Amino acid sequence: MNASSAIIGESIWVAGIICWYIIRRPFERRARAIRVIDNRRSVVDRVGLWAAVLGQGLVPGVYIATGMPAVADYPAHIWATALGTVLFFSGLWLFRKTHKELGKNWSISLEIRDKHKLVHTGPYSRVRHPMYSSFLLLAFGQMFLLPNWAVGLAGLLGFSVLFFLRVGKEEHMMMETFGNDYRNYAKTTKRIIPYFY
């Protein structure tokens, strides 16, 4: 393993996670001040959130701190670190953009807030769930930044569990709340990958 590429990749991942938290924190604080009028939190919802935290936070954090599981390491290359950096920071850029676009409508869970609006501008003009798109970019970035099969797959698995447990329920809730406006919006957009899915 190219030690310097591995160290650079780990450092970039850590810096990226700090940026992720800095982006998210003000929206969490603001969200507490806005009344929730429909809360669909469930055990399944929590399982999805914890899968994402485990796969895209705890597993790579433990790997960076301990080097475990070293048996799943593969050689680090500067091209992979560069690609991982582009993917990871593209994910962070999209993550911030989606938060800004949602504004007071943002919630960590399946909730409708007071005076909730259907957002279909910015990244939402291309896909219905750009925050999941950002998580997918972060997962692929993690895979290239941290040269370990288990850690790379943990990020993709964590994303997949969150996405497939929540997206259908999220869309159902939006259809119930916004009716034909959401149905028409869904006809003109893809879920997370523009022009594809």
Overall description:
The protein has a single domain (3-187), classed as Four Helix Bundle (Hemerythrin (Met), subunit A). It contains six helices and two strands; from the N terminus they run H-E-H-H-E-H-H-H. Helix 3 runs antiparallel to helix 4 (130-145) and helix 5 crosses helix 6 (180-187). It is elongated and about 55 Å long. The mean pLDDT is 93. It is mainly alpha-helical and 197 residues long. It comes from Rhizobium wenxiniae. GO terms for molecular function: methyltransferase activity.
Low-confidence stretches: none
The neighbouring-strand order within the major sheet is 1-2
Number of domains: 1
Order of helices and strands: HEHHEHHH
Under the CATH scheme, which class? Mainly Alpha
At CATH level 3, the topology is Four Helix Bundle (Hemerythrin (Met), subunit A)
Instruction: Report Rg.
Output: 18 Å
Mean pLDDT across all amino acids: 93
Main structural class:
mainly alpha
- State the end-to-end distance: 36 Å
Number of strands: 2
Quickly count the helices: 6
What is the strand content? under 5%
Helix content: 55-70%
Transmembrane segments: 6-23, 43-64, 76-95, 135-165
Main location: membrane
Keywords: Membrane, Methyltransferase, Transferase, Transmembrane, Transmembrane helix
Subcellular location: Endomembrane system
